[in-house]
Amino acid sequence: MNNQDQALIFELTKPGRTGYSLPDMEVPEAALEDLLPESYIRKTEPGLPEVSELDIMRHYTALSKRNHGVDSGFYPLGSCTMKYNPKINENVARLAGLAHIHPLQEEETVQGAMELLFDLQEHLKEITGMEEVTLQPAAGAHGEWTGLMMIRAFHEANGDTERTKVIVPDSAHGTNPASATVAGFETVTVKSDETGLVDLEDLKRVVGRDTAALMLTNPNTLGLFEENILEMAAIVHEAGGKLYYDGANLNAVLSKARPGDMGFDVVHLNLHKTFTGPHGGGGPGSGPVGVKKDLIKYLPKPVLVKEGDRYTFDYNRPDAIGRVKPFYGNFGINVRAYTYIRTMGPDGLKAVTEYAVLNANYMMRRLAPYYDLPFDRHCKHEFVLSGKRQKKLGVRTLDIAKRLLDFGYHPPTIYFPLNVEECIMIEPTETESKETLDAFIDAMIQIAKEAEDNPEIVQEAPHTTVIKRLDEALAARKPVLRYEKKEPVTN
Ligand SMILES: *Cc1c(COP(=O)(O)O)cnc(C)c1O
Predict the structure, then answer these.
(1) 281: left (phi over 0), alpha (psi -120 to 50) or beta
(2) 441: part of which helix (H) or strand (E)?
(3) pLDDT > 90? residue 1
(4) DSSP 8-state secondary structure symbol assigned to residue 30
(5) Ligand 1, atom 14, residue with closest C-alpha
(6) Which domains are present in the chain?
(7) Cα of 141 to ligand 1 centre, how many Å?
(8) How far apart are CA 371 and CA 389, in angstroms?
(9) Mean pLDDT (the chain, rounded)
(10) How far apart are CA 376 and CA 364, in angstroms?
(11) pLDDT one-digit tens code per residue, 101-158
């Protein structure tokens, strides 16, 4: 990468240089004052970069090469499911009949698109064991909030206004307590036991007449299957609460087990994770919510229904919690998920689960001699290691993550879940080859050895990236997002 590539686009400016050329005007130029109110007219130049088309191409192409994505390398970010996004999804989403329709078109003119959404809902009902599904929520956390608002409406309709508490395990994804809080609930933590599962005695202790719901993911965020789920469901239902399933990462149970059969009343899915929507860097996502019978009437409106051969949106839903998204969700990402489900078929989805679990267990067992394994049992689609041993040598988990950048990998999730010290959470996903898994394992083993023999190389990593180690707190809290011109660049 040459010096020019590292400059900001503003610094590449040569006054008067443009990236376009237009023919001379054949008509007199209209005066701005005749077109716009005086107050809208700019008094000073905006100071935009002045560069040629070729320079601008090179600048942004160089920047794009610094990006890391699933298409450029392994991305084992736990609880994120960075798996391959099949390109056939993109082809289908770009079909003119799907990509060029407008959300305000008459229903008669978009029956095919509505059929696709309806079929997707039917597939998701079957996959989750739920009785109705909405595709409106735009992401996982949005689905959580939507589901909790429905649970709230259900309790209120029953006069159960004292149900103000949502129980979440200490290993829960951060969005769970956040969504519960935004939905107006208080969160209560239930502890995990030494095997990494919800402590049943503690659950019995915290459950009661004030319980609105238990929010859970299964397998949990440590990648472990909550084998007492039926007993847990009975405890919560007996107390009058509902069970909420965080189904963001379904690759561990897809086509094998269904939240509906485990006793859950509400579930959200992340189509941008499990169902191969490209994600990371902000979306767009899709977080459909499925419910059992007694929550159907609270679904956000409109509800997509089929009457004979015709699809229509039903707005006449007096008990609905309202709308949660303009129109009917993020259409493009739903098209991709539909394509994925149809191309995989039931057997394909079963294979997804088997490979996701096999890959995670293979990697966990091969790394276990080199890193602490807090829960020494079969994992599902992901697993956690602890960097405790390396910390004693002065190498923190953050250092290990930074060192992985030198090997060309996106680091795993670190310091999460919170109940594991120096946590390293790895989700290899089912789409990676054994060669890729082995290469990553070798890198992790090399780093473990470096921590013993040559800790500085890990502590000072990364060594090969464009930007070396950032002050992460400063970068997050005081990001410099605006270009401020200092002095003209001369070269
Ligand atoms: C990713 C994730 C979420 C949040 O989903 P978003 O789409 O990022 O809002 C919730 N729970 C779990 C377990 C997740 O992995």
Answers:
(1) left
(2) helix 434-453
(3) no
(4) P
(5) 248
(6) 9-66 (no CATH), 88-343 (3.40.640.10), 352-477 (3.90.1150.10)
(7) 6
(8) 7
(9) 94
(10) 9
(11) 999 999 999 999 999 999 999 999 999 999 999 999 999 999 999 999 999 999 999 9
Residue 290's pLDDT is what?
98
Quick one: which atom of ligand 1 is closest to the CA of 141? 9
Q: Find how far residue 217's CA is from the centre of its chain.
A: 15
pTM given for the model: 0.91
Q: For 51-138, where are the alpha helices, taking DSSP H only?
A: 53-65, 87-93, 96-99, 111-128
Q: What are phi and psi of 475, to 5 degrees?
A: -65, -35
Show the tokens assigned to 135: 């595709």
Ligand 1 pocket (Cβ < 6 Å) reads 79, 139-141, 173, 175, 217, 221, 246, 248-249, 270, 285, 287
Which amino acid type is present at position 302? P
CA angle 164, 170, 174 (to 5 degrees): 80
Q: Which of 303, 304, 297 is nearest to 320 (CA)?
A: 297
Q: For 434, list phi and psi in degrees, rounded to 5.
A: -60, -35
Q: Rounded CA gap, 336 and 353, in Å?
A: 19
Residues written for the chain: 491
Helix (H) / strand (E) element for 243: namely strand 242-247
For residues 471 and 468, what is the distance between their CA atoms, to the nearest angstrom? Answer: 10
* pLDDT for residue 5 is more than 60: no
Q: How far apart are CA 8 and CA 56, in angstroms?
A: 11
Query: Mean pLDDT across the stretch 278-306?
Result: 93
* Token pair in block for residue 428: 């290899």
70 vs 84: CA distance, rounded Å: 6
Return the structure tokens found at 258.
């269904």
